[in-house]
Write a structure and sequence with these properties.
By secondary structure, the protein is an alpha/beta fold. The chain has one domain (24-157): Rossmann fold. It has 3 helices and 9 strands; from the N terminus they run βαβαβββαββββ. It binds inosinic acid and magnesium ion.
């Protein structure tokens, strides 16, 4: 992956502005407040793509919660999945004591998430829900229950707000379609 120089030169269009994202994140946080008030809550983020979403979501949530991280890699530095998923970082918490919300950046084929969700279910959390920022339903290969998605997007490759292409673009404050 070459150093992209100026991000703006590689962006076709902005799909979701920073304001769109903040509005949706605030509403999702309000639903979490309502559902889990008074209950032990663990927000689990799958690195790296969900780190921005979790950072904003967790600061919009007002009830006490813990944060945990996992890393599952299915994409390396190309636009294609290599078809395998590796858990390279696992949680430290014993999740049987928590209501778990698994926070994802995007569901594409669903393969990564299906595997991680199944692994977490086997550990018998008090409950498990999946919250994804983006969903590309046209690309789904594996169906996933109990998912809430904030935005449905068409089958285009997007970057920004945590999502990368070749490890760049994660720091864009909006979601954009790449031009190449
Ligand atoms: P899945 O296993 O096919 O659902 O895809 C899992 C991962 O692929 C996501 O968590 C992202 O890291 C990555 N991915 C899928 N679509 C995109 C995209 O449009 N832009 C950037 N990353 C993507
Ligand atoms: Mg991801």
């Amino acid at each position: 992956m070459q150093y992209p120089g100026n991000y703006a030169d590689h962006i076709r269009r902005v799909l979701l502005s920073g304001q769109d994202l903040q509005d949706a994140v605030r509403k999702a946080a309000a639903r979490i407040d309502e559902t889990y008030a008074g209950k032990p809550l663990l927000l689990v983020s799958i690195l790296k793509g969900a780190f921005v979403f979790l950072a904003d979501l967790s600061r919009a949530v007002t009830i006490p919660c813990e944060i945990g991280f996992m890393q599952a890699q299915s994409y390396y530095d190309s636009k294609q999945s290599n078809g395998t998923v590796n858990i390279t970082l696992d949680l430290q918490q014993d999740i049987s004591r928590y209501h778990v919300v698994l926070v994802e950046d995007i569901i594409d084929s669903g393969r990564t998430l299906a595997l991680v969700a199944e692994m977490l279910r086997q550990r018998k959390p008090l409950s498990l829900r999946i919250l994804t920022l983006l969903d590309k339903p046209e690309r789904r290969e594996v169906s996933i229950p109990d998912v809430e998605s904030l935005f449905t997007i068409p089958d285009v490759f997007v970057v920004g707000y945590g999502l990368d292409y070749g490890e760049y673009y994660r720091n864009l404050p909006y979601i954009a379609e790449l031009s190449e």
